[in-house]
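In the previous lecture we treated proteins in isolation. Real proteins rarely work alone, and many bind small molecules. This record shows how such a complex is specified: first the sequence, then the SMILES for zinc ion.
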Amino acid sequence: MLEKPTLPHVSESKTCRNCRLQKPLTEFTVHKDTKDRLSNHCRLCQKKRRRQSYARNRTRLAEKLLTGTKRCRQCGEIKSAQEFHRNYANLEGLHNLCKTCRRASDRRRFEKNERSLADNPPTGKKVCAKCEEETELTNFYVDRTKKDGRKTYCKQCSNTQKKKWLQNNPGNLGRQRERLALRRKQQQQHSIADLILAYAGSTTK
Ligand SMILES: [Zn+2]
Ligand SMILES: [Zn+2]
Ligand SMILES: [Zn+2]
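The predicted 3D structure, ligand included, written as tokens:
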């Protein structure tokens, strides 16, 4: 017999199976396979678990040269691993769409969003996906590929994330700094050369 699903009353709480903490039902996501239609793990624990599996995949795949082929879910073509962007959330470390299709779909989403954003510019507040704080929309960087035209992380979280990334990728930062230093040096040399030329010019006249 099919029972009609009834959602428990919102004021009730539930104990998370992972952290064993009793939390309000709003702290649990909807899940269709459980008795009460809610996940057995709280949002925080779910998030933690997702992050852990991502990190595991990342370390496992980081050093591994991705070889082999994969069928793109969009164009259906079988392409080499190099034709796909990396995605550590996936087991084989590759995106489901090939680079070409991803670019095209990004482009389409961007254009569609740009049109809708032009019609009704977003206002109000937004909850940051990282710190979960609700702040003004202006506290989020602009991202035209998103539905509301803003990034999912607030500016503070975006900045700390960027900082963390740079710390975790010192090689990239080092190269970037090197390039910058080289450019500055070249500019300096240019200006010195200009000065000498100007000086020489003024004295020979
Ligand atoms: Zn929990
Ligand atoms: Zn494709
Ligand atoms: Zn935030």
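Summary for your notes: The two ends are 104 Å apart (CA to CA). Residues 72, 74-75, 77, 97-98, 100-101 surround zinc ion (ligand 2) (CB under 6 Å).
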